[in-house]
Amino acid sequence: MFFLNANDSPTKNLKFREAVNAALGNEEIMSIATDGLFRLTHGWQHPGTEYFAGEVGKDKYNLNNPELAKQLLKEAGYKGEPFTLVTDNSFKNDNDASVVASQQLQAVGIKADFQPLERGPLLEAITGRKFDLVSYGGGVYTVDPDSTSYVLMCQFTQPKGANNAGYCNEQVDRLFMQGRATADQAARAKIYQEASALINDDVSHVWLFVADAIYGYSDKLQGLKPHGDFNSAYWNANEWSVSG
Q1: Of 11, 94, 108, 222, which cross-links 69 as Cys (Cβ 3.0–4.6 Å)?
Q2: Which CATH superfamily is domain 2-212 in?
Q3: pTM summary value
């Protein structure tokens, strides 16, 4: 995924963020960054969970639509202001995705200054707000959508926490709190799907793909649902059973 700087021009302008979003994506970035091992996504929850917003946002993400992007840039009043794209150069996938993204941005008139950085300088750029767009290979947090609250809620915006985009929508915050307050999974799913719609409308992030991962496991194990993020491999362990 990429996240945008919600605090400073030009990316604090919603129309400009929509233009960046429209310019990026399609299978070009994913096929290069993941060697074709990916699934497209258009939201902050894994497509395999009940919390995923379904078709919400599908018309906004992974478009790679230069003409739409140019129109949105015009509506945003963009005059060619400097634009900085930074990435963690220790992750090949992020770097490869960013190279293609910078080309897609250039194609619509955004002259991206592409800066592959070591982890230390990258964190300094984020905390110092010296970026417009960051390529960031974050997890997809399948275990529970509330685990994403610390990167999306207002109270965790930089420098207070891990909300590196500086994104803040009080209605989204209220939905996170409602989701925490109920144990009814069906009710929670509706709450987080509503949050997904708002987050997609705000274009705080550019959601691109969930990378595939290759697993090996015993045929005695039932219920395993392999996950693109190895850190979340045990996301549905409550459904596992062992035979024999």
Answers
A1: 108
A2: Dipeptide-binding Protein; Domain 3 (3.10.105.10)
A3: 0.83
